[in-house]
């Protein structure tokens, strides 16, 4: 962040560097700015003119040093300084030359020379910490100066009260929630600025309410000293640094008086309770208690000086210059009383805090095997802590401070702790208790900040803060329609060693910086582009990638939580996971140190910060021993149990500042919140961003001028770092180049329509044109405003001018409106009186007519009602009866349908059961029959084989047979012996015999080859056996299918016979019906002839009757009408007077023909159906025949397969016999060699050969020839062997 040394001109990245200035301004004597390694920027003036041909520029600094810089282009020219008349302006955007050195020098001049700490920067208020008492700037007189000014507040000097007044005006005028975001580094004055903003709200709210400044406004202010005491501490950079973040939401009523407030806190730094660096302090409340140890409220606690306690003495003597801890303690207790925390509750709070100090003094010594034990000198302190303060079991506390319990598989084991583990256990308990006290106090503060029912003011009652009386609890509360939020959160931090706290703090600042960017930068530029305003786009730093690195999926927080969920995860494991993460390697804002160390680097918007991973997991888990917490929960001290309950409830709600986990080192955790500290903090930040996004923000950027805390001392290096980091320089550029104020045309027309009355309804019908006319009329410089597509834009100060003109115009118009209105009211009063008299007359005259008319209407209405009611009753009765009948019919019909369906289902299921049962019976009988046949065949074949075997054995043992064989063998043996003797005598034949031996060896090799082929045949034989088994299984299945098909065929034949018989019966019935129809037609023809003869007779009678009627017509003329209308005297209905019999006979004849035709059609249709069914049965018969042929082919295949298997088995048996015979021959050769030819047992070889021959039962001629050849080869082999021997 520090500027680089040297005098070279920055070519990019500096505010104003892109601006171009005419060379006419760079004349001799012109004042410019140059970079300086110490002052960042230093003033100088030119010693010669600058022209287009100039390559270098010669300057003389204000220190009297001559310098020369190289010019490479227009951007390398030095920055021009503003005229003296513009130096010290209260708004940086009003400077003529707007660049980084001008902004820095203007702030320096106002702060050092004018002793002014506030400066406007467009919409941002820059506040520089003076490190001096400036209480005169925040008195009631100053509040009166800014109160009620509204938009004219920009005409006054910059002040935090001006920002507060602008927020109140915007809320009341536009009805939108407001927020004041106070940001800056630690020690820049954020807490003080937020405090004064709240003081202004309280003062203005009390003036608008009926009560004085002792109600809700007083309680809002009283919360500040309490939160500073328990949440602020001294750090290296700040004596009153907030170690937690808070967002105070101040609610307002409809009259814009304060209705209440609510405080939300974020990430309390609990580690400060147990550890402070050198020259730092613990929280202020501990030192306040030690300084006021002789106070009546603290006498029974036996407190000592702060340096005597370990938790308050680590940083040194612990005193702050200019701070009276005793007076601050009195102010804290007074604030407790104003917020409704009575004296007893205050004593309980200080009692718990005193116990923490006593707990920190407990030290441990190493016993045997490095086991930690409480030092003997600490027993008195433990006794005081347990009996006087916390009222807990001292033995249990002593035990569980040095021992932890491990549970595994239902067993419990106690493991002693070493010294470091015991200290960590003690510190964890202290942090839990302090966070519990903090949570309880915040809860009580929020309860008190809700508007109470009207009660006497504490000041009017003169309530003593030390009194034990309990203030009245609130009974009712109301919440305002609008609110103003004040955000006071920790600033960006970077130390030599940065840990988990700095990680969360800087993460929060990244989110706030993003919100600032979106409001000031992104929204500003997008607005101009959307409205098509002439605008030069400015690039700015977007920190969204850095936020994604932290909070996105698989970001740092997710990986940290994943490691925390692991049972034995460590900080080093988490760091290794970060190093091996592929997603993090692609993040430009994440780096690892070049030197191997347990740390990682995050490139934040303000600086690159190195975080050491030591303690990240423990702080994120925030665990405490379950047994220690149980000891505290069993305390007889009610307040201690109460605050632990509030702490657990607060952690469950996820407020973000504390999330205690109770853990047992045994493995599964019994009580554990789902979210870790980082997750809760991330969620709370998201909620905060949503709240800020729903408001109109106002920004206060606090600047820390130096690190030495010297009053009104300005360090340019430190200042420029903060100005660059917080975005003030970018705000200056955008505000000066753009239009900070903007209005929708409709809103502008509604508010400023009084400024251009010539347009009449133009503000409603043509709002854009109206805005152009109105601004052209009242704003002389047309460059001060710009017309967009939907909005009109103004430069700084123009809206205030329009507001002033509007107020003046409205004041003049009000007088005219009052004059016209009063005349109008008088005239309307006269007209109203006259109209009232006429109305009374008309009403009186109309009343009598109205009463008569009303009676008639009532009579007609009664008749109409009776008619309607009676009709409605009749319809209701009919509808009810109809519904009843329909319901009965539907139930009856449904019952019939259900019965019919049930019967059909029953019959269908019975048929299916019968089908499967009959099929199973047939298959079982067929399988049993087949098994019996096979068994009989096996028995018969076995009996035949045994008989043949006995015959062969008898023949083999007969004497003649044996003699025949013996004689043949003796002759062979004698001939062989002779040959052998001759061979032994004849040495010349050895060569031939050797050749024979070689041939024999070839034969043996050939036999070996045959043996390999036989082995392959054996493998094929095994495969064929498996194939046979599979085919046998398929045959069984096919047999079952065939049996079932035969059964179906039989059933279908039976059905076909039944259908044929039924068809013959139906044909006979149809033929009988045809015969009956023909006979009926003959009868009808005879009846027709008879009726025709009757018709002729009736016609003759009718003619005769008509003649008689004509004769009597004159006599009956007088009664013609009667005779014509009387049915009793007319002949119209007589059979004799009509011709209806003729068409009747014709219709009957036609009806008979139709019936015969329909009968013939039915017969033809039945015949067609029977023919189709017969064809279907024929097709099924063909299918069954083809299936039977396939089965027969399969059976032939099976028989062939069986024969092949039998032959293979025979070949295998022959191989076995050959092997045995070969072994016997080898045995004979060995006997001859060892014992001589006389001792050879040839008889046993012959007998075994005959037996083997009988067993094989060779009947094939070819196979016998093969055996003969085999015996001959064997004999030759024996001869060769014997010859060699």
Description:
By secondary structure, the chain is of the alpha+beta class. Helices cover 60% and strands 10% of the residues. A seven-stranded mixed beta sheet has the order 6-7-23-8-17-11-12, with helices on both faces. Strands 4-3-2-1-5 form a five-stranded antiparallel beta sheet. Strand 11 and strand 12 form a beta hairpin. Helix 4 (190-208) runs antiparallel to helix 5 (216-231) and helix 28 (798-957) packs across helix 33 (1242-1256). The two termini are 113 Å apart. Residues 1-12, 453-480, 652-660, 665-673, 1120-1152 and 1257-1263 have low confidence and may be disordered.
Beta-strand fraction estimate: 5-15%
Largest sheet, spatial ordering of strands? 6-7-23-8-17-11-12
- Number of E-type strands: 26
Task: Report how far the terminal alpha carbons are from each other.
Answer: 113 Å
How would you state the average pLDDT, rounded? 79
How many separate helices? 34
**Helix-residue proportion:** 55-70%
**Low-confidence spans:** 1-12, 453-480, 652-660, 665-673, 1120-1152, 1257-1263
Structural shape:
extended
Indicate the structural class.
alpha+beta
Largest sheet: 7 strands, mixed
Task: Write down the Rg.
Answer: 60 Å
């Amino acid at each position: 962040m520090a500027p680089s040394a040297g005098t070279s001109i920055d070519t990019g990245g500096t505010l104003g560097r892109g601006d171009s200035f005419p060379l006419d301004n760079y004349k001799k004597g012109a004042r410019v700015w140059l970079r300086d390694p110490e002052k960042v920027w230093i003033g100088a003036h030119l010693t010669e003119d600058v022209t287009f041909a100039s390559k270098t520029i010669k300057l003389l600094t204000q220190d009297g040093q001559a310098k020369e810089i190289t010019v490479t282009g227009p951007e390398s020219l030095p920055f021009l300084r503003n005229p003296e008349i513009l130096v010290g302006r209260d708004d940086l955007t009003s400077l003529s030359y707007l660049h980084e050195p001008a902004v820095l020098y203007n702030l320096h001049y106002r702060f050092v020379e004018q002793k002014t700490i506030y400066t406007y920067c467009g919409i941002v208020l820059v506040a520089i910490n003076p490190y001096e008492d400036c209480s005169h700037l925040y008195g009631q007189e100053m509040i009166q100066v800014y109160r009620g000014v509204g938009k004219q507040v920009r005409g006054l000097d910059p002040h935090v009260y001006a920002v507060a007044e602008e927020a109140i005006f915007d809320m009341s005028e536009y009805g939108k929630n407001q927020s004041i975001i106070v940001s800056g580094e630690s020690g820049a004055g954020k807490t003080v600025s937020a405090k004064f903003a709240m003081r202004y709200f309280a003062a203005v709210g009390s003036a608008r309410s009926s009560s004085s400044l002792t109600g809700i406004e007083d309680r809002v202010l009283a919360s500040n000293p309490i939160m500073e005491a328990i949440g602020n501490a001294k750090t290296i950079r700040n004596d009153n640094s907030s170690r937690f973040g808070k967002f105070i939401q101040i609610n307002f009523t409809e009259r814009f008086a304060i209705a209440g407030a609510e405080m939300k806190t974020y990430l309390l730094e609990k580690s400060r309770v147990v550890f402070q660096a050198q020259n730092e302090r613990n929280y202020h409340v501990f030192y306040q208690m030690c300084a006021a140890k002789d106070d009546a409220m603290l006498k029974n606690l036996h407190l000592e000086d702060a340096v005597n306690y370990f938790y308050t003495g680590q940083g040194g003597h612990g005193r702050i210059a200019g701070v009276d801890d005793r007076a601050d303690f009195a102010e804290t207790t007074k604030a407790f009383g104003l917020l409704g925390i009575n004296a007893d509750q205050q004593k309980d709070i200080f009692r718990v805090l005193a116990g923490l100090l006593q707990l920190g003094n407990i030290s441990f010594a190493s016993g045997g095997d490095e086991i930690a034990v409480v030092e003997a000198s600490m027993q008195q302190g433990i006794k005081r802590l347990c009996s006087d303060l916390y009222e807990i079991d001292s033995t249990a506390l002593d035990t569980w401070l040095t021992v932890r319990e491990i549970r595994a598989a239902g067993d419990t084991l106690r493991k002693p702790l070493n010294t470091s583990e015991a200290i960590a256990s003690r510190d964890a308990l202290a942090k839990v208790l302090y966070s519990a006290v903090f949570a309880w106090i915040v809860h009580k503060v929020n309860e008190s900040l809700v508007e109470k029912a009207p009660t006497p003011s504490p000041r009017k009652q003169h309530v003593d803060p030390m009194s034990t009386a309990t203030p009245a609890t609130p009974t009712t509360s109301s919440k305002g329609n609008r609110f103003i939020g004040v955000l006071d959160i920790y600033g960006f931090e970077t130390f030599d060693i940065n840990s988990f706290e700095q990680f969360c703090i800087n993460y929060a600042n990244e989110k706030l910086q993003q919100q600032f960017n979106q409001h000031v930068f992104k929204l500003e530029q997008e607005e101009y582009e959307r409205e098509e305003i002439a605008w030069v786009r400015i690039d700015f730093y977007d920190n969204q990638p850095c936020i994604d690195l932290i909070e996105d999926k698989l970001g740092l927080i997710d990986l940290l939580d994943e490691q925390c969920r692991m049972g034995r995860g460590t900080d080093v494991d988490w760091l290794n996971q970060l190093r091996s993460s592929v997603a993090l390697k692609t993040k430009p804002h994440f780096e690892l140190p070049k030197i191997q160390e347990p740390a990682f680097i995050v490139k934040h918007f303000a600086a690159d910060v190195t975080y050491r991973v030591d303690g990240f997991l423990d702080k994120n888990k925030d665990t405490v021993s379950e047994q220690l917490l149980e000891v505290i929960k069993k305390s007889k001290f009610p307040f201690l149990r109460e605050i632990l309950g509030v702490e657990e409830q607060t952690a469950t709600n996820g407020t973000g500042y504390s999330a205690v986990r109770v853990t047992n080192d045994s493995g599964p955790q019994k009580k554990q919140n789902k979210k870790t500290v980082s997750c809760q903090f991330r969620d709370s930040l998201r909620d905060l961003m949503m709240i800020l996004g729903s408001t109109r923000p106002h920004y206060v950027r606090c600047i820390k001028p130096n690190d030495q805390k010297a009053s009104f001392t300005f360090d340019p290096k430190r200042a420029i770092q903060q100005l660059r980091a917080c975005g003030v320089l970018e705000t200056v550029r955008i505000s000066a180049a753009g239009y900070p104020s903007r209005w929708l045309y409709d809103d502008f027309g509604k508010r400023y329509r009084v400024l251009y009355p010539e347009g009449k309804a133009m503000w409603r019908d043509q709002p854009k044109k109206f805005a152009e006319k109105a601004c052209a009329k009242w704003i002389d410089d047309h460059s001060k405003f710009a017309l967009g597509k939907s909005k009109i834009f103004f430069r700084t100060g123009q809206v205030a001018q329009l507001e002033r003109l509007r107020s003046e115009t409205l004041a003049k118009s009000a007088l005219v409106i009052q004059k016209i209105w009063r005349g109008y009211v008088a005239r309307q009063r006269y007209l109203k009186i006259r109209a009232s008299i006429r109305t009374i007359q008309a009403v009186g005259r109309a009343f009598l007519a109205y009463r008569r008319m009303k009676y008639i209407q009532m009579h007609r209405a009664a008749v109409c009602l009776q008619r309607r009611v009676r009709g409605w009753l009749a319809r209701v009765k009919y509808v009810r009866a109809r519904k009843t009948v329909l319901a009965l019919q539907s139930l009856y019909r449904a019952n019939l349908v259900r019965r019919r369906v049930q019967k059909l289902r029953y019959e269908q299921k019975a048929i299916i059961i019968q089908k499967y049962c009959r099929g199973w019976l047939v298959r079982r009988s067929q399988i049993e029959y087949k098994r019996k046949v096979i068994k009989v065949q096996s028995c018969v074949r076995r009996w035949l084989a045994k008989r043949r075997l006995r015959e062969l054995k008898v023949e083999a043992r007969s004497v003649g047979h044996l003699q025949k064989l013996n004689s043949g063998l003796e002759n062979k043996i004698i001939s062989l012996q002779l040959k052998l003797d001759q061979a032994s005598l004849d040495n010349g034949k050895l060569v031939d015999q050797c050749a024979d031996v070689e041939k024999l060896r070839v034969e043996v090799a050939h036999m070996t080859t045959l043996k390999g082929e036989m082995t392959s045949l054996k493998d094929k034989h095994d495969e064929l056996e498996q194939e046979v088994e599979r085919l046998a299984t398929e045959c069984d299945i096919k047999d079952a299918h065939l049996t079932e098909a035969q059964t179906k065929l039989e059933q279908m034949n039976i059905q076909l016979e039944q259908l044929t018989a039924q068809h013959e019966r139906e044909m006979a019935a149809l033929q009988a019906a045809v015969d009956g129809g023909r006979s009926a037609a003959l009868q009808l023809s005879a009846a027709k002839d008879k009726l025709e003869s009757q018709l002729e007779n009736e016609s003759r009678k009718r003619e005769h009757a008509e003649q008689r009627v004509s004769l009597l017509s004159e006599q009956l003329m007088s009664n013609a009408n009667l005779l014509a209308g009387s049915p009793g005297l007319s002949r119209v209905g007589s059979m004799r007077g009509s011709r209806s019999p003729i068409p009747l006979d014709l219709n009957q004849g036609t009806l008979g023909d139709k019936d015969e035709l329909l009968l013939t059609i039915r017969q033809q249709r039945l015949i067609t159906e029977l023919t189709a069914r017969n064809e279907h049965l024929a097709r099924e018969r063909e299918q069954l025949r083809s299936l039977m042929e396939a089965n027969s082919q399969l059976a032939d295949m099976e028989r062939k397969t069986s024969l092949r298997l039998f032959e293979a088995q025979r070949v295998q048996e022959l191989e076995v016999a050959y092997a045995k015979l070969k072994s016997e021959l080898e045995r004979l050769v060995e006997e001859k060699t060892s014992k001589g030819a006389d001792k050879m047992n040839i008889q046993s070889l012959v007998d075994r050969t005959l037996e083997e021959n009988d067993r094989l039962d060779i009947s094939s001629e070819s196979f016998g020839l093969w055996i003969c050849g085999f015996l001959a080869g064997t004999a030759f082999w024996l001869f060769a062997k014997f010859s060699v021997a």
